[in-house]
Amino acid sequence: MVNISDAEKLLGVNFLDKDLLLESLTHSSSINESKNRVGCHNERLEFLGDAVIGLVVAQVLYQGEKNRDEGELSSLRSQVVSGESLAGAARRMRLGDLLVLGRGEELDGGRDRNSNLAAALEALTGALFLDRGLEIARSTVGHWLSEEIELANSGEIKQDPKTRLQLLTQSIEGQIPVYKITGQEGPDHFPTFSAVVSIDGITRGSGTGSSKSLAERRAAEDALKGIGNQNIEKSER
User: Fold this and answer.
1) Using CA of residue 79, residue 80, residue 82, residue 85, what is the dihedral sign?
2) Are residues 130 and 170 in the same domain?
3) Residues facing residue 196 across a β-bridge
4) Do 176 and 145 share a structural domain?
């Protein structure tokens, strides 16, 4: 069960109606697996939040560069509100740690599934809109998606860290990263996996996560930090 107080601290927002927050984090698998199917899952809030996010992002982009036409604004908005983009923001917020999942979905890596993360962020936005109104939802969602909006404004395309690492190591070292799961701790319903990534036989990064793919992604992020620091050192010599 989600600790509501901890969730609010992690998300940086307080809800007046705590049940709305819980509903926004509840995946349908949790309700489907309960004996009496009691409670509400987040799909209706997801529908509402999708519209709110679209409005917030559209306004931010509209108020940005004044020489952008409708077609360019639509393209940028699509980039920001795409499932992959929203999932990336949700990972940065550690939203996956807060999801209420059924056992089957949990064991199947549901905490790190793009569709679950994007849906939860949309549902959370819908809940915030209902609970605190449009202005607070606007400012909060703008903050949550600030990195994605900045990337869209700069014309850059955000890539998964594993993809970035592979492109970088292939171009610099001519090598492909190799990932290895090195451990698993915790109960079956809430495991923590450890992973390392090696390049040319040398370990370059490590990470942990609630799924194997998340552990590998965090290992890639760790490796990217190291490679970035090495490049800075070389440029300063």
Assistant:
1) positive
2) no
3) 180, 206
4) no
Of 175, 217, 176, nearest to 194 (Cα)?
217
> Which of 154, 177, 203 finishes a domain?
154
CB-CB contact of 62 with 90 (8 Å): no
33 is known as an active-site residue:
no
Retrieve residue 96's tokens: 């996956």
Same domain as 138, residue 24: yes
Give the DSSP letter of residue 200: T
Indicate if 174 and 139 belong to the same structural domain.
no
Q: Check if 122 is active-site.
A: yes
C-alpha pair distances (Å), 31 with each of 42, 44, 102, 124: 10, 14, 7, 18
pLDDT tens series, the chain, 237 aa: 678 888 998 888 999 999 999 999 999 998 876 655 556 899 999 999 999 999 999 999 999 888 888 888 888 898 899 888 899 899 989 899 999 998 888 888 888 888 999 999 999 999 999 999 999 999 999 999 998 888 887 766 566 788 888 888 888 778 889 999 999 998 776 788 999 999 999 999 999 987 787 889 899 999 999 886 454 334 333
Q: Which of 23, 46, 50, 222 is catalytic?
A: 50
Residue 42: name the closest of 120, 134, 137 by CA: 120
| Domain that residue 118 falls in | 4-154
Catalytic residue, from 46, 105, 122, 131: name it. 122
